[in-house]
Amino acid sequence: MTEEIIIAGFGGQGVLSMGKILAYSGMMQNKEVSWMPSYGPEMRGGTANVTVIISDERISSPILNQFDTAIILNQQSMDKFENSVKKGGVLIYDPNGITRHPERKDINIYTVEAADESAKIGLAKVFNMIVLGAFLKLKPLIEPEYMRKGLEKSLPPRHHNTIPENERAIETGKKIIKARYLMN
Amino acid sequence: MKDVRLMKGNEAIAEGAIRAGCDGYFGYPITPQSEVLEYLMANKTKERTGMIVLQAESEVASIHMVYGGAAAGKRVMTSSSSPGISLMQEGISFMAGTELPCLLLNVVRGGPGLGTIQPSQADYFQAVKGGGHGDYKMIVLAPASVQEMYDFAKLGFDLAFKHRIQVMVLSDGAIGQMMEKVELDDERPRWTDEEIVKMHTWAATGKTKNRERNIITSLDLNPVKQEIINRKLQAKFRKIEETEVRFETIQCEDAEYLFVAYGSSARVCQKAVQLGRAKGIKVGLLRPITLFPFPYKEVKRLAKQVKGIQCIEMSAGQMIEDVRLGVEGIVGVEHYGRLGGIIPAPDEVLNVLEQNFIKAKIYERTH
Questions:
Q1: CB contact under 8 A, A36 and B177
Q2: Quick check: ipTM above 0.95?
Q3: pLDDT tens digits, residue range B101-115?
Q4: A65 contact B CB<8A
Q5: Residue B24 falls within a domain, yes or no?
Q6: Which stretches does DSSP call E strand in B228-339?
Q7: Contact criterion met (CB < 8 Å) for A39 and B268
Q8: Are B174 and A36 an interchain contact pair (Cβ–Cβ within 8 Å)?
């Protein structure tokens, strides 16, 4: 099993930390992982993206241009990465702020209204965990106990009291993901 | 239980240095390697192992602090990225002239000039052929994973002191910034002053009654003596060429076509090998781990086996010169590279290999 994922959105949406939590959890479950961020000028107040690979085998290239799953959180990233999803792959996006929805017919497309949901709960910071939950619903690569270990490892100890709300957000994401277009 | 962590390449080499018994780090921040200094500072090394970590006023100052520490027989290091490494070249040449061991890290970014902050491999010539003046070589290690960033701190210090030479870890922004799993080993204690006096009889540790003064200088105005010094240096480099070559081969046993690439380009090629094999193309990868000494013999051995060699570098073609020296014209060698901070994609490099050697059939075996 190898899952190649791109997560892309605005800086500050928690794109990099979502990737980090996913990679850390995969590692705790004894998988091979890599996390390759965009660290260029775009992260200084623009779009941010990270490539995460989770695999049972040694990972070859941490840098890719084709992905099994794209998680897209803003319009610029939609424009940039819609065509980078492998045929038959998955695109998950938050429609909030999206003006041009994905049109491809050779991939499966899902939406997760994480921005609305996190506003409803009144916890904007768990936005990215809602998105992560949506991904895990489709691709249950990581067992919940390892997700917890991943959260423990990637959050500094002073934030460990937020782990239950992060876990609840993951569960919420699993519930609110909707299929927008499915290949037959 | 093994200590396994998810780390950035830059953090891994910093942790590696602490655990390798490093005595001092002197550096000046520059993207994409500032995490080295940040990690060392955050880890309070003075309390943990006694290691000194100092942010110098410039790269020129950093390398001369390294010179001083090394002259005293200490395990010392610096790190920077391309423009900063250029500033250090005078100091590196002086260390070559005085045979001072040290660990240098270049997390290469796109150039020339200030260039970009994105990954590049355009500093190969500077590292391998000598960026400073005079006839000298450094051992150059090219990590292709975060684990190797960690491992090469200890390996680098060991090689540096074994041969009294400067060891450069030639990394790039991609390896420095990405996170991967790293297995950490136990901390090795720093040398005590007594151990240094005993082991490094050349070091400036303070004159004692029973030996002559140790003078650390690269200046000798007598050309006859200077030639003797140079011959001694060259003999050392030849010995390193004989004994320290390191490389990895991936799926080369039955390969008809070969990628040669190091560092993050080698990771891209590893994926391209998988994609090629899935299409039925018998392609393998030779990954030099030491860039000096370069694995010429392995290149030649594989050149006799394959129909074409595709070099992949994030440069306009630098390592390819060493590959061609190894190939000795036996088989066609082509370069493909992206410049200025762009990383090629796996399908892109496979496509290039196919175009050059399979579809065009421009090369026939000449032996």
A1: yes
A2: no
A3: 999 999 999 999 999
A4: yes
A5: yes
A6: 247-250, 257-260, 283-288, 290-292, 308-313, 333-337
A7: no
A8: yes
